[in-house]
Design brief:
1 helix, four-stranded antiparallel beta sheet, 23 strands
Length: 291
């Protein structure tokens, strides 16, 4: 067994399934350098974990050779699908979909090609099924290419093998009052502002998106709300971040005893990142950290 505070991962994603919590993330030992796969840890109490189990290992001939980042796992139509980011300096950074029969894997490449556009620098794909049953991937168009990062969405085929139509932009980083530039450079004529790690939940008839950027030098987590309930509707940014203490790339999950828990990594400093959990509560139509 390994304690939570001893697990070195970024972008922790929790899948509660049949009495156990499955945690996936970016291996902080190879986050920026080296070819890797994705670990999975299994727990019954969120503090003591079995693992790591190799959930995905780079297959021979796979196009990406670096930056294996931010795996998310979603159950869909009887199987488990991993959305993860990959990089090749001669190609791009992109999100591709993997598939397994069990939550811990092993995961195999499912979408024949990356889902994100071939000429875009992208990352952090997440999964959402709308009220009409259509699957979508929400992802980030990176600030490293366009300066002011964007969060975009693209409809997926019913079998999650390819995109349907072109991506649409949901919002840009500078629409959030709490976001500040994270880099002094000017890219594509714009200041540098991150969009990172989107994750969407339904709340009543609304959609709530958690996403990360930087706020006054700190990695931070914010919230955007869409009152239309449609993913392509208007997203309104909350004025203040949910969390601004050098932690982010978060997601919301419910424990088996009914608590709303938020998962993120902290600090945002390699190789010291650790998965952190804290309880949220509903307040005034949104979420706040429970005191």
């Amino acid at each position: 067994m390994i304690k939570r505070e001893d697990i070195g991962i970024r972008d922790p994603f929790i899948l509660p399934h049949e009495g156990k919590y499955y945690m996936f993330g970016t291996d902080n030992r190879t986050a920026w350098h080296g070819v890797s796969g994705f670990p999975c840890y299994i727990s019954e109490d969120l503090e003591n974990w079995e693992g790591p189990i190799v959930a995905f290992e780079r297959p021979e001939g796979f196009w990406a050779n670096d930056n294996f980042w931010a795996p998310e796992v979603h159950e869909y139509k009887g199987a488990f699908y991993m959305f993860a980011s990959f990089y090749n300096a001669e190609k791009t950074r992109a999100t591709q979909i993997l598939r397994a029969e069990k939550p811990e894997g092993p995961y195999r490449v499912w979408s024949p090609e990356p889902i994100t556009p071939a000429d875009w620098l992208c990352l952090d794909g997440t999964f959402f099924v709308d009220d009409d049953g259509k699957p979508w991937m929400v992802f980030c168009h990176e600030w490293l290419q366009i300066g002011i990062g964007e969060i975009c969405a693209v409809e997926l085929s019913p079998d999650l093998t390819h995109p349907v139509g072109d991506p649409v932009t949901l919002f840009a980083a500078d629409e959030a009052p709490w976001v500040t530039p994270n880099d002094p450079r000017i890219i594509a004529g714009n200041p540098c502002m991150v969009t990172d790690g989107p994750y969407i939940v339904r709340e009543g008839g609304k959609l709530v998106m958690f996403w990360s950027s930087f706020s006054n030098g700190n990695y931070a987590e914010g919230i955007a709300v869409n009152t239309s309930g449609k993913i392509t509707g208007e997203w309104i940014q909350q004025a203040e971040p949910l969390f601004d203490k050098d932690g982010g790339h978060g997601m919301l999950f419910e424990t088996f005893d009914g608590k709303l828990m938020f998962s993120l990594h902290r600090p945002n400093n390699n190789p010291f990142e650790r998965p952190c959990f804290f309880e949220l509560e509903r307040k005034n139509g949104t979420f706040v950290v429970k005191e």
